[in-house]
Amino acid sequence: MKTRTFVVLICLAVWALPAHAQYKEMNKVETLAKNNNEQQMLDGLSKHLGVSSDILKQEMSTNKLNFGQLYLAHTVAKSANSDFKSVVEESRNKPWPTIIEERKVDKKKLAADLEELEKSFKKK
Predict the structure, then answer these.
(1) Counting CB atoms within 10 angstroms of each CB, which of 19, 48, 73, 115 has the fewest?
(2) Domain limits of the chain?
(3) pTM to 2 decimals?
């Protein structure tokens, strides 16, 4: 019984650690949002993602996304050579780690991109 419990815990840990990373990334963007006003966030994301701040604001409103979800959807779409709308639609039915895995997004590049975004806000 102890062996089976141990195996189950190991399996959960193997699944949960990578899954936790994407939520950690969204939370980091949300932390940036708490330290900046809405327009500063939109302008910073606009510059980083190459999408106008007006479009980002509209996407947030239309899709009921927070800044972390908005950032991740755009980054995943870009990395997977896909469109933003399909990634957002998929996020309604699947967890982010599954989307990232299925779309074969490089998690290390995703983490590096977030670091770059954080640095751009720290420069301000």
Answers:
(1) 115
(2) 21-122
(3) 0.80
